[in-house]
Structure formats: C-alpha cells, structure tokens
Amino acid sequence: MSAGSADRARILIVTAIPEELSAFAGRRLPSGVVVESTGDGLRRAARATAALCERYRPQLLLGVGVAGALTPDLGPGDLVVGHRILDREGETPWPHGVFVVAAAAKPGARQGTLVSVDRPLVSAAEKAEYAARFPPPPAAADMESAAWARAASAREIPFLIIRCVSDTSEEDLPGYLSRCMDRDGGIRRSAVALSALAHPGSIPALLRMRRRVTDCAARLAEFAVRFAAEVA
C-alpha cells in the first residue's frame, strides 16, 4: 500500500507479519510514504528489504513490528525505539541519531536494545539468559530488526526500528513455536495450528498472543503514520 509514486518513496515502512501490515489498511498515509511487508524471519526479511530499498530508494526506512520483552521493565503494549540493534553477527550499524531521539521523545516510546534471534524465545529462562548478555535494560527480542537495519545501512539509507511488546519477560510461550520454523527462519502457521490441536492446553495462550499482536500492530501503525507525517 502506498501514497505518492509507485516507484519512489521518501519513507519506506516495513512490517513482517500479516497482522502488522493489515493494521495500516484504511489509514491515510502522508504523501511519499509506502508500507510493505518483508515477511518474517531474518533471511526472508533480509532479501525482501534489499529488494524494496532498491525499488523505492527511500530517504528513511522505518521498521515496525511486535517483539518479546527480555527485561521486566517492559510490559505488553510498550513501544521500544531501537537504540542498539543486534543479531548473532554483532551490533548493526547505528541508526540516524536524529530519528531515534525524535521517536523516543514521543509519549509512550522508550529507547532500548533490540535483539534479532533465529527462532522465538519461548521460555522465561531463555529470555533471562539473553537479557543478561545485553545490559542495560530495556531490551526486547524479534526476528527481523537486524535484517532491516543491515539492508538499509548497506545502501546508506537512514533507518529507525520501532517495536511493540507483545509478551513479557516472565511469560512462557508454547514450546512448539520454536520448532514450527521454515527454511527462511519464519514461523509456519500451519505447523503452529497442528501443534495447538495436539496440545489443546496451549490454545488459550495462543489466543492471548493473537489479541496482543493485533493490539500492538494497531498501536504501531498509529505511531508510524503520525511519525512519518512529522518527518516526511
């Protein structure tokens, strides 16, 4: 979905999962702002972001999506502006400081560390282990931020990543989520559905996650459109 030229954009907003993209439907986008989905998982997101950056040549890439809290100071619905973005290769190049400061100054948004992982962190123990590696808090985990950041940086495009917390550091998620992965590092929803049928006790947790993801996606879309309008 886009506003303005189909081939150029001042701001490219990228999401990963369908719920994040659909939250932009019906919203009035500022001129020159384009919203696209890269798909989930580091490998898929890296390929798609590179292609989108080549197509649109934006002046700013704005990545938005849900994340899991790694530290107890973050709760559901909290917005985290990526001040540091890391993956297993290390820290990605720093985002444009002006954009980070401007976004973090908005009500409800906080600067923090975003850690991109190869699979969902499903237990509170796993989250605590990751949190201990990246002091100080706040910190959250996702599966695409570093791919978005590296693709933009490689093309000298300033970027800003904003995440909304969908699960807390103390919450355990269904363990089979980390086993329902495809070859590109994304989650196979069909496999999740089959696993849920085999473990019906996990269904309430999945439904709670779905509601939170929908709520987070709506908050992210509202924040991103408002922010884009201010900087476009």
What does the secondary structure layout of this molecule look like, with pairings?
Elements: E1 11-15, H1 18-22, E2 33-37, H2 42-56, E3 60-69, E4 79-87, E5 90-91, H3 97-104, E6 109-116, H4 124-133, E7 139-142, H5 145-154, E8 159-167, H6 189-198, H7 203-231
Parallel strand pairs: 1-2, 1-3, 3-8, 4-6, 6-7
Antiparallel strand pairs: 3-7, 4-5, 4-8
Helix pairs in contact: 2-5
- How many separate structural domains? 1
Number of strands: 8
Number of helices: 7
Structural class by SSE content: alpha/beta
The CATH top-level class label: Alpha Beta
Q: Give the CATH superfamily.
A: Nucleoside phosphorylase domain
* Uncertain stretches of 5 or more adjacent residues: none
CATH architecture: 3-Layer(aba) Sandwich
**So what's the overall shape?**
globular
Strand content: 15-25%
Q: What's the SSE pattern?
A: EHEHEEEHEHEHEHH
Kindly state the percentage of residues in helix.
25-40%
- According to CATH, what is the topology? Rossmann fold
Mean pLDDT: 93
> What is the terminal-to-terminal distance?
17 Å
